[in-house]
Structures are given as C-alpha cells and as structure tokens.
Amino acid sequence: MECNKDCTCCHKTKERSAEEYTSLLNRLSRIEGQIRGIRGMVERNAYCPDILTQVAAANAALNGFTKELLANHIKTCVADDIRAGNDGTIDELVGLLRKLMK
C-alpha cells in the first residue's frame, strides 16, 4: 500500500486548535531562524564559543517545543483515549517518554 501525506491508514493524525497550531508553528519558525543564524555564523567563521552559545539556545528552544507538544498530547490525545477505555495509549506514552529521556 502506498501512502501519501493525507493517508490515515498508516499514521495517526490530530486536529489541533488554531491556538495550538499557531503556537507550535511560531516556535518552529523561531527555531528555524536560530538554525539559519548558526549556519551563517559557521559560514562567517565565527568564534567557536559564540556558535556553541547559539547552539545551546536552539537546543533550549527545541526542548521548549517538545515540552509544549508533549503537554498538549497528554492533555488531549492521551486523556481522551484513557476516557474511551484505550489503555494502550499509556504504553505508547511510556515508550515515548523513554525515547525522549535518552
């Protein structure tokens, strides 16, 4: 079976509120800007500690994105599935947390 981006047979999807969608995309846009800035620093032969400081800031921004997305996932997807009696979601969440904590 061939999948396209709209396929729901192989991948779960989630409808996000306009607020959540905007917040996540705004965070990602800022992170993209930070990464482009780091690339520019490398291209301009910036001093290593200056680049590393910006890398740390980008990592912190990605961690913030991860925390927001995870909180939204638990509050919506996980809570809804548990209320519906789908306890398999708990195992999925535990597996996800193990991956995130590596």
Structural features, described:
With 102 residues, the protein is mainly alpha-helical. It has a single domain, classed as Up-down Bundle (Methane Monooxygenase Hydroxylase, Chain G, domain 1), CATH 1.20.58. Helices cover 74% and strands 0% of the residues. The chain is built from 3 helices and no strands. Helix 1 (18-43) packs antiparallel against helix 2 and helix 2 (48-83) packs antiparallel against helix 3. The chain is elongated and about 55 Å long. It starts with 17 loop residues before the first helix and ends with a helix.
CATH architecture: Up-down Bundle
Helix content range of the residues, please? Answer: over 70%
Kindly identify the CATH topology: Methane Monooxygenase Hydroxylase, Chain G, domain 1
CATH class call: Mainly Alpha
> Treating each run of at least 4 consecutive H or I residues as one helix, how many helices?
3
Could you name the ranges where pLDDT drops below 50 across 5 or more consecutive residues?
none
Strand content: under 5%
Number of DSSP E strands: 0
Tally of distinct domains: 1
**Helix-strand pattern, N to C?**
HHH
Mean pLDDT score, rounded? 91
CA distance, first residue to last residue: 33 Å
- Global morphology: elongated
Biggest pleated-sheet summary: none
Alpha-carbon Rg, integer: 18 Å
Structural class: mainly alpha
**CATH level 4 superfamily:** Metal-sensitive repressor, helix protomer
